[in-house]
Design goal:
Blueprint: H1 3-6, E1 9-14, H2 21-29, H3 32-40, E2 43-48, H4 51-60, E3 65-69, H5 86-91, E4 96-99, H6 102-107, H7 112-124, E5 128-133, H8 137-141, H9 145-156, H10 162-165, E6 169-172, H11 186-204, E7 212-216, H12 224-228, E8 235-238, H13 245-253
Parallel strand pairs: 1-2, 1-8, 2-3, 3-4, 4-5, 5-6, 6-7, 7-8
Helix pairs in contact: 2-4, 7-9, 9-11
Length: 256
């Protein structure tokens, strides 16, 4: 089955709570050469800055670079202090959003249901959710990885149509490997990304072969090629290694 060769590779940097707007602008201005290199090699690349830097990066980055938000609210306006809505993102041309990152699940009570509600409004607005799933160290050690990840996929994507999820990206991020320097092996990454795809196939049929499944968790230039060589790993969601233009460019060149 060569369908994985048809899915365009995706390298997405999650900046989390890093970079001032001035620093984000520097990165954006320097992005043109490697954005062009990515396009030439049929690879999609992008970054997810903080809300305060979204407009800056969108304005100054290469037009070939995806600019994603790290979160969104499921209501389009209202008394939700501290939140940002889909219309607010769309005003700045932002149409990709990370949903359900493990840090938001851990610190901000991001449940599978909340993720579902957010993805519903994104699908309704023809936007792209990058839906994060993954297990904690305790769950991993107890052999519960597939039970946990399967539940996150099924509950987060419940009731959507195959047409909806064509725009979906799923990112498998084992919580125990994010920012810890502990890497899931490429065998684990392939096994769980493959399991995610099988779960999607069970829910939505053959469209599952079009959905990109990323791996995230201590991805670095030295290991990115090994992960992306796996048939069911279509790209990477990268944290720390995406913050410096040099390391982000190295991530790209190492998968060419």
């Amino acid at each position: 089955m060569l369908l994985h060769k048809m899915r365009k590779k995706l390298l997405l940097g999650n900046w989390k709570m890093n970079k001032l707007a001035s620093e984000a602008k520097e990165f954006a201005l320097a992005s043109a050469p490697f954005a062009a290199l990515a396009k030439k090699n049929n690879i999609e690349i992008g970054v997810a800055p903080t809300y305060l830097s979204l407009a800056t990066v969108k304005e100054f980055a290469s037009k070939d670079m995806i600019v994603a938000a790290q979160n969104v609210h499921f209501m389009d306006h209202g008394a939700y202090t501290g939140e940002v809505s889909v219309p607010m993102l769309k005003e700045f041309g932002i149409d990709w959003v990370i949903i359900g990152h493990s840090e938001r699940r851990a610190y901000d009570n991001e449940t599978n249901q909340k993720c579902h509600d957010k993805m519903k409004v994104l699908f309704e607005n023809n936007m792209v959710p990058v839906y994060c799933v993954g297990e904690t160290l305790a769950e991993f050690e107890a052999g519960q990885t597939k039970a946990v990840v399967g539940r996150q996929v099924r509950e987060g994507l419940a009731d959507f149509s195959a047409d909806d999820v064509k725009r979906l990206v799923v990112a498998y991020e084992p919580v125990w490997s994010i920012g810890t320097g502990k890497n899931a092996s490429s065998e684990i990454a392939e096994d769980i990304c493959g399991f995610v795809r099988e779960t999607l196939r069970d829910m939505f049929g053959s469209v599952a072969d079009e959905i990109r499944v990323l791996y995230g968790g201590s991805v670095k230039p030295v290991n990115v090629k090994e992960y992306l060589s796996c048939p069911n790993v279509d790209g990477a969601l990268v944290g720390g290694a995406s913050l410096k233009i040099e390391s982000f460019e190295e991530l790209l060149t190492n998968i060419l």
